[in-house]
Fold this protein.
Amino acid sequence: MIADLHLHSHHSDGVLAPTALMRLVATQGVTLAALTDHDTVRGCTEAAAACLDLGIGFVPGVEITANWQGQELHVLGLGIDPASEALITHLSMVRQLRHERLTEIGRRLERKKQLVVSEAIEELCSNHDSPTRLHLAKLLVERSLAKDIAHAFDHWLGRGQPGYAPAQWPSLESTVKAIRAAGGQPVLAHPHRYKISAGALRRLLAEFCSVGGLGMEVSVGGMGSNDFDRLTHLARTNGLAGSTGSDFHDPGIPWNPPGRFAKLPPDLEHVAVRLQR
Ligand code: AMP
Ligand code: MN
Ligand code: MN
Ligand code: MN
């Protein structure tokens, strides 16, 4: 089994439509795939039909933005019911915050750097269900205001940069509860990417477990072996199931294809096993 439980379509900041995404996923040898767009489940129906056609397993999912002690986090909801009222209400609130944050980013870029982007941001927000900073970074590159996406984050959009605007995302607890209410498994996404100390990560995992978290990503596309070892250890000590996923967004980034990540060690329970139970 190759379970890629972290994939983005054009319903958030991915490039491909759900059907094209799942076709690519299947060619990479993936046997179980989850669609996990940022704060929207809009692509799940199409992705489910595509996977049925392709003869691979499908897990409806979402990657939800949350706040823990001022740190922005991502929590995957895997095996959710996309029609859950509690989840739909939660996600609408997060997307509203996305719109407000991008509008504020536009205001800051104009005020501090005389960049005229507010109109383009308004358009971006009306054209996308779940607009992200990646959309805006691409716009800055198109307008030759940044040489590439990394530069756009480093000089305009990242923390401490002129276009940085914080957002009051819902708490970790309310996020986990919304996923559980939708019958899903809350899985902490890419814990190695958060810029927090080892002690803070231990506290985060303890709190995640205490509010109902069930799994954590331990094998993510592009991850180094030190992080993999550290995270598998943390999953074991916290009694969390492990998850695997590429966090694929874009076929133009060929070094991070769907399905490419290390296998879990055999003693660690895979979230996929729980999902198929
Ligand atoms: P948002 O969720 O609106 O903050 O947008 C963040 C998205 O932008 C992430 O999900 C990534 O896909 C992408 N991203 C964030 N930071 C970077 C970066 N430094 N370089 C490239 N992509 C990034
Ligand atoms: Mn993304
Ligand atoms: Mn993420
Ligand atoms: Mn992601």
